[in-house]
Amino acid sequence: MAHFVIIGAGIGGLTAAHAVLQQGHTVQVYEAAPELREVGAGIVLGANAMRALHQLSLHDAVRPHGTPVTHLDLRDQAGQLLQAADTSVFTRKVGFDNLGIHRAALQQVLFRALPAGTVHLGYPFEQFEATSTGVMAHFANGRMATADALLGVDGLRSRVRQQLLPRATPRYAGYTCWRAVVDATRLALPAGESCETWGERGRRFGYVPVGGGRVY
């Protein structure tokens, strides 16, 4: 049995913590933010991702918080249908829904399903150092944590990655994106439908159902 330290309590870090525990190890998660607030917008968990959550015994906890995405339409800027995909094919093949869900709802489910005391908030990571027995993580609040191994799951501007691979930097892909989650109960959108419209000069608009009558 090994002890792990995970830097970052986002979706990736919390899911990794569940996987580590399932393998019979121990884990502590450290997050820079002082609280887990409702941030972000929506996310689509493919059927294979839902199968992975099932393997972590998390599927039944996550599933009620989202909406199955069964159709994906692609349209031009005049509203003409370019392509229609029936995503239920993947559901039948893999055995699980494709699920649209609010990121904050998913994060909260993952957080609440961990044993009490696993996640530590208000721990901004500064650096790590290798020791004779494993690794030691240093935090801006003056605290330290030791482990056999450290997992850096601290986001796009990961300080763990910056120390480990200083030349690896995010590459801007040329997109600017505005995201929101809105109440769509009055719009009478087709159940389970996600749609994306492609306009001129690379402009796009899309929506995905995320549960509770809302769309992302």
Provide a brief overview of the structure:
This protein has 216 residues and is α/β, with parallel strands linked by helices.
Multimer state? single chain
Rg from alpha-carbon coordinates: 20 Å
Instruction: Please give the alpha-carbon distance between the first and last residues.
Output: 41 Å
Q: Specify the number of helices.
A: 6
Strand-residue proportion: 25-35%
Helix and strand composition category? alpha/beta
What is the typical, i.e. mean, pLDDT? 95
| Strand arrangement, major sheet | 8-2-1-12
Low-confidence stretches: none
Helix and strand sequence: EHEEHHEEEHEHEEEEEHEEEEE
Helix share, percent:
10-25%
Can you give keywords for this protein?
216 residues; 2 domains; 22% helix; alpha/beta; FAD/NAD(P)-binding domain; four-stranded mixed sheet
